[in-house]
Amino acid sequence: MIKKIIVKTTLMMSLVLSSLSYAQQCDDFTNVELRKLRSDEMLNLCQFKGKPLLIVNTASNCGFTDQFEGLEKLHQQYKDKGLVVLGFPSDDFFQEEDDEKDTAKVCFVNYGVTFNMLATTAVRGDDANPIFKHLNEQTSSPNWNFYKYLVSADRKHVTRFNSRTKPLSKELTSEIEKAL
């Protein structure tokens, strides 16, 4: 019994110290912890400090849902060079599954997504998560699903791409290469 308490206390202390460590090294809008899709695991986005981010609002039942395939290819092509792809499922346009397990199935089973997917969240308006609140202030909020936001490694520049911009398009890939 005492052994279990010591192990749990040690784990909790480790998590707290880890969070404090990220907070001390990260003083920008990515200093947030968000829950991963269909998981209890939290992801502190500060761990990606110094790397460009491609942030995408996604949906499981949209005409653009097949862009998951291109996003995964981007992730595979550029992850070793530093690009971090982050997917944010949202029901702001009423095209996301009601149950998170169904969203996860679309992402992980149907499209083989291996990049980080966060729990379903709002990306527009007053309810938007803190990441999208910042992106919306820097550019504007997404008008539909699969808007892409390329954030520079220093977090000073955000370039917004609409739903029609395909993940593997020359327009997007050339900007990614510049950011790397």
Structural class: alpha/beta
Mean pLDDT: 90
- How helical, in percent, are the residues? 25-40%
What's the architecture, going by CATH?
3-Layer(aba) Sandwich
**SSE pattern, N- to C-terminal:** HEEEHEHEHEEH
CATH topology: Glutaredoxin
Total strands:
7
Strand content: 15-25%
Helical segment tally?
5
Largest sheet: 5 strands, mixed
Q: Overall 3D geometry?
A: globular
Q: CATH-wise, what's the superfamily?
A: Glutaredoxin
Layout: helices, strands, pairs:
Layout: H1 2-25, E1 33-35, E2 42-44, E3 53-58, H2 67-78, E4 84-89, H3 100-110, E5 116-117, H4 130-138, E6 148-151, E7 158-161, H5 170-179
Parallel strand pairs: 3-4, 4-5
Antiparallel strand pairs: 1-2, 3-6, 6-7
InterPro entries: Glutathione_peroxidase, GPX_AS, Thioredoxin-like_sf
Protein name: Glutathione peroxidase
Pfam families: GSHPx
Tell me what you see in this structure.
With 180 residues, the chain is an alpha/beta fold. The protein has a single domain, classed as Glutaredoxin. The chain is built from 5 helices and 7 strands. The strands form 2 sheets. A 5-stranded mixed beta sheet has the order 5-4-3-6-7, covered by helices on one side. Strands 1-2 form a two-stranded antiparallel ribbon. The chain is globular and about 35 Å long.
